[in-house]
Request: fold
Amino acid sequence: MKKIVKIVLSLLMAMALAIQLPVNLVSVVNADGGPHFDYDLEYDVSENLTYYGLTIDDNTVELVGCFFVGSFDEETFVIPSTIDGYTVTTISRCFLVQGGFYGEGCENYELPDTFTSVVIPDTVTTIEAYAFSHCTSIESITIPSSVEEIEENAFTTSQLLYVYEGSYALQYAIDNGYNYVIIEETEAEKTFDIVCDEIHAAASYSLDELLTEEELSNDSYIEFILSVADTNDTVSDEDKSLIDSTLEEYVAIQYLDINLTKNVDGTLSDITNTSSTIMVIVDIPETLIETVGDTDGE
Reply:
């Protein structure tokens, strides 16, 4: 049976490598029996938010819906660039909705009206029809320059679109009469390489999360180093139990220590605190991966 390897990474913690069984296609239906969306991937970001996706291939996914629990203090809904290791490339038809769109008893599938803006990640290339046009509380949407296709009525005419100079989204806004603001790209937004002895991966961050104001203003050489070490023999049983208790249905078979360091003009320092979450996706080298043989059953 084919298994999907899911790697959960956090800074300065021992990590676990987990095995997840494939999920069958599921249809979400409303109280009247009408279909909402089909999905084959379910990913819990937290106890309050679950994303549903429809995998396009082994690496990419289309976001098709969400499930919200409780209240949210945030005003900006930031769509993730990945869920469960799959890169988000498509935002589906009617992805975010409000106002009883799904019918009685299905309110948890609708975006809470505390959110007033949406940020789309720069992995997305396609936004399908009506993706955000059923969201009455959303006043603005930020669209990256990666987007190459936007279907009709993806937004409402009252929503302000933040777009990049020369982008497809800018031309779409002009052609379809949407209000828009052109975003000026700054040096604080760039893509850089994360390098270490055995891992090489690309990541996109806002640098003011990682650098001081002085480091940003100077013309400095900057490098970010991601180090990964096998700590199977050094993690205490107490820490292993703590990690295992958070994995729920997953089984931990390996523990990794992951650290992020910055090199500014030859001065190295650890990055231990940021004001928001940083996500790093890497290919774990074969030398650090322990495998589990195939087993029968579900």
In short: The longest strand covers residues 255-264.
